[in-house]
Design goal:
single chain; 7-stranded mixed beta sheet; 9 helices; 19% strand
Length: 236
Amino acid sequence: MPVELADAARALFGDRLDIAAAYAELLATDGVVRGLIGPREAPRIWDRHLLNCAAVAERIPEGIEVLDVGSGAGLPGLVLAIARPDLAVTLIEPLARRTSFLIEVVERLGLGGSVRVFRGRAEEAATGANGMAPLRGDVVTARAVAPLDRLAAWCLPLAVPNGRLVALKGASAAEEIVEHEAAVAKLGGGEPTVHLCGVGVIDPPTTVVEVVRERVVGPARTAAAKRSRGGRSRRR
């Protein structure tokens, strides 16, 4: 861990910092070898990935169920599970090589009591697949997966009524909200809001867009949902 990030890491992970460090090591080694993290990302695992994701914990209430869509290497879901042992986290990921990595990491870090891995798409998780009942969470997280309209189509059906989508976004979050607000409303979402997480702890803070599931809409396929049939955004 870079020395200049030590204070932020302690503030965000507390007495779970050793677990976070073990996860960082797995990302920088097995994660790179198995193609889940790019080689150029390895030196930036703490600032660009772990701390960026851990800061989002301030937007998540205590003791709830969190579903992480498109977990990839476990970002942000595994990071949140490390920083917040009070959470029950389900990592949703369709690719076999990624779910294999996630299952191994959960076991090696001793997180099996609070983390489970679901192999499948968000749509399958919402309707039930692989012998599991439909999944629902109080908060549904996603990071760098897709534009907001597609995220809402995938994630809002996974949220309980009045649950929330918490999407990690970049500096253009406000513009994205303007572009997709109408589509989000049709999917049963409330007005999207932007929040900065980790202010005064990490620089820059993490930008998230939150959408409350205000209404349960019918099964009619939206344009965003139709596009999702063509495949997911490939990341990490």
